[in-house]
Amino acid sequence: MNDFGVGERTETISATTLGSAPIPPDADRLITVNSTSISLRLGAWETGGCSISSFVVEYRLRGKPSGGNGGDWVLVNNNVKLNGGGGGGRRDAASSEFAILDLSPETMYTLRITAHNAAGSTVQKYDFTTLTYLGGWFLVPSSITRSSQYCLATIAPELIIHSDYGGLIFKNPAVMLPLFLAIVIMVIVAILFVHHWRKKAHHIGTDSMTHARNLL
Asked: Are residues 179 and 189 in contact, defined by beta-carbon separation less than 8 angstroms?
């Protein structure tokens, strides 16, 4: 419509923009489990055709009711950015790692990640279990599972130790204190043995010299 009148109607044209909300990866492509931390390969997420703007990363203890006693979600970061990569395609997983630290060994957790892009948001949950201090097996109590069973990490681990946790075993007082006491005791016993042996050897030498003089 304009000053000259009403024009003829045109056909209605429908169009759909390209792109979708982010697409989550499988757990084994995303998570690497350690004893007290996990590493997230955020670059494993599919962008859906629109660059991922940010992630929200949260976790909580598995099997705990919400509302206290460890059952509430712990917010790690609500604005995690991807490093490197371009818009529209899939990013290099190795360039976008994010670590969650200060977890407890031999503990079951639920991870919740929310990924945002221009087309929408995707929320995905993953269950994982941290390893023992030695990175091995442990017994899951029957109160959490239907029957007690030995369990390794939910995600097959590649034992990656974060730089802040290097030498974790040797920083553990429960390991270091008995080891230190054992070494001290061994050193004391060795010193006493050597002292006793030297004292005995000295007495034997003195007695031999006295006996020889008496014969003369």
From this structure: no
Whether pLDDT at 85 is above 50: no
Q: Name the residue among 112, 111, 110 with its Cα closest to residue 144.
A: 110
Residue that wins the pLDDT comparison between 154 and 206: 206
Tell me how far the alpha carbon of residue 148 is from its chain's centroid: 24
What number of CA atoms fall less than 13 Å from residue 131's CA on the CB side? Answer: 19
- In the CATH scheme, what is the homologous superfamily, with its name and number, of domain 27-163? Immunoglobulins (2.60.40.10)
Distance CA 39, CA 83 (A): 15
Dist. CA 143–CA 166, nearest whole Å: 33
CA atoms of 158 and 135, how far apart (whole Å): 10
Enter the pTM of the model: 0.56
- The confidence band for 178, taking pLDDT boundaries of 50, 70 and 90, is confident
Q: Whole-angstrom Cα distance, residue 110 to residue 64?
A: 10
Q: How much is the pLDDT for 94?
A: 41
> Hey, how many other C-beta atoms are within 10 angstroms of the C-beta on 15?
4
**Which one, of 113, 100, 116, lies nearest residue 54 by Cα?**
116
Tens digits of residue pLDDT in 120-139: 999 999 999 999 887 665 55
